[in-house]
Design brief:
It contains 9 helices and no strands. The chain has 225 residues and is mainly α. The chain is globular.
């Protein structure tokens, strides 16, 4: 297996572990610092998108100068055009379905949504539609590159078990969405992390995940907010 060579080279285990820890903690630090000085939705929207890209840059620098390995350990697979159309469509449907799961709990009077996130996205849609587009594009590209493209193959290399790598990756992905508020809202990125994780390890097509992620966020932004 392509990842097996990284598993047997012990000198690369420590940089992989440190890199995964950095990927998680850097976002927490960057967002915490930025949010202290920019409380309003619209200014924060622009800054937070910039923080996302800066986060990706920092991880790339770590990989380039410390790990000295490819950022994406798995080579992108190529498929026929209709494969991309079909898989993007299926993943979008799954993405939509998962995003509506928490609403099923509303009838049970359980805590549903984080009003801060709702207000933020509503402000984007009605006052800065361009910011909604930038948000979707930034989240789709950066999150998929970091969590699936960068982190997941390294977890797989360290653990040598696909299910364990996907599960831990999904937990970390959900944990970094803690600003969503309740555990019901964090359930959405967890389930997406599971499905997208297994998809990426099986088909090795990050492009499909990015397109599905961006497209779904844009549509959800218009429909829900």
């Amino acid at each position: 297996m392509i990842l097996q060579k990284y598993l047997t080279e012990n000198e690369f285990k420590a940089p992989f572990i440190v890199g995964i820890i950095l990927a998680v903690t850097l976002k927490l630090i960057l967002y915490s610092v930025a949010s202290l000085s920019i409380p309003d939705y619209l200014p924060w929207g622009y800054v937070s998108r910039g923080v996302l890209w800066f986060w990706l840059l920092l991880i790339w620098l770590y990989v380039h100068y410390i790990e000295r390995k490819p950022f994406f350990l798995l080579k992108e697979s190529k498929y026929p055009f209709w494969f991309y159309v079909w898989t993007v469509s299926v993943l979008m449907v799954v993405f939509f379905a998962i995003n509506f799961i928490p609403y099923l709990f509303s009838s049970m009077q359980m805590t549903l949504a984080d009003t801060h996130v709702q207000a933020e996205m509503n402000a984007y849609l009605h006052e800065r539609p361009l910011l909604l587009i930038i948000t979707a594009i930034s989240a789709g590209i950066v999150e998929e590159c970091i969590f699936r493209g960068y982190m997941l193959p390294r977890l797989h290399s360290l653990l040598n078990k696909q299910w364990a790598a996907v599960l831990i990756g999904a937990v970390l992905y959900a944990a970094l969405h803690y600003t969503y508020g309740s555990w019901l809202n964090m359930l959405i990125p967890f389930l997406i992390g599971i499905i997208f994780g297994f998809y990426y390890l099986k088909y090795r097509s990050l492009a499909v995940l990015i397109i599905a992620h961006i497209s779904t966020l844009l549509i959800l932004g218009v429909l829900l907010f």
